[in-house]
Design goal:
The chain is of the alpha+beta class and 123 residues long. It has two helices and six strands; from the N terminus they run E-E-E-E-E-H-H-E. 1% of the residues are buried. This is Putative transposase.
Length: 123
Amino acid sequence: MEGKVKTLSITRRNNRWYVSFVVETEPKLLPKTGKEIGIDMGLQAFLTTSDGQQVEAPKYFRSSERQLAKAQRRLSRRKKGSNRRKKARLLVAKAHERITNQRLDFCHKVTCSLVQRYDGFFA
C-alpha cells in the first residue's frame, strides 16, 4: 500500500467484517482537457449535461423488488426473538445492502467518467 496509514477502522455489517484504511498519499493530477460542463440533476433522467447528454438512472430497486419482498415476507412470518428471525432479518438487510451498493457503484462510475473528461463543473 502506497503512502502512510493514518487511521484504520474495522466494522461489521450484515455478518461481514470490513477494514477501512485512511492513507495519506500524494495526489495524482489528471491531464487538463480544457473542457467545462454544466450538470442538472433531474427526476426523469439521473442527470443531464449542457452537451445534451442524458444519463438514465438504473432501476436497481425494481430489479431487486421480488427478492426483497420475499425476504420481508419470510421475516414477518418468524416468531420474535427466534434464531430463524435473526437469520431472516439478515437476509432483508443483505437485500437492502445490495441495492445500496449498486446505487453507490453507479454514482461512482458516472462521476469518475465525468471527472476524467472535463476540468470544470457547474450545477
